Amino acid sequence: MPTAILLPMAVLAGYLLGAIPFGVVICRPLGKDPRLVGSGRTGGTNVYRTAGVLPAVLTVLGDGLKGAAAVWLAASLVPGSDQALAMALAALAAILGHNYSVYVGFAGGAGSTPNIGAFLALSPNPLWFVGAAVIGGLVWKFGRMASVASLTLSVVLLASTAWLVYSGQRPPTLLVYGVGQLALVAWALRPNIKRLLEGREIRVDSR
Predict the structure, then answer these.
(1) How far apart are CA 30 and CA 125, in angstroms?
(2) Number of structural domains, the chain?
(3) Calculated CA dihedral for residues 191, 196, 200, 201, nearest 10 degrees
(4) For residue 58, is it within any domain?
(5) pLDDT at residue 205 in the model
(6) pTM value?
(7) Does residue 206 lie within any of the structural domains?
(8) N or C: which end of the chain has fewer CB within 10 A?
(9) Contacting residues for 40 by C-beta, under 8 A, at least 6 apart
């Protein structure tokens, strides 16, 4: 099958995978809906507010896995010289699907968890993923602001992809992902950025 068909297929598959609303699926048997609580998003932070630690952990795992799966699927679908571009675009499509899920009326999260999952699949070494995750986790732990942690993570991922391209470990098409993921996350977090600038951003209760 020609690449002109396989590439759009990989991107569409990435979106449909990313759009799986694990936060909604996991909370539904508990009689809860993260879209009705807090920020109204479906990601791990709002699931934590809605249903507690275990549902939040399961949501994070599911959301991270779908980001990685989108990249792995693209790699298997698109061979040759277009494979790297397909992987980068599928990663962005997974973030877009997470943020604007067709399954739940185009509601969603801010994209950070599928983003880090996609980066795991795109990285030449898992240590890159671990380093980025640790930095994002430390910002979350000490700041208790999911938006700040998400934005920090996206900046770290952009810097990481730039270095991987500069050092020759990954092709220049990886920068499509690096720049795109920051743009998607920042766009989703526009209300949070506004509150941050006004000093009104909400911290998540560590209890």
Answers:
(1) 38
(2) 1
(3) 70
(4) yes
(5) 65
(6) 0.93
(7) no
(8) C
(9) 34, 46, 107
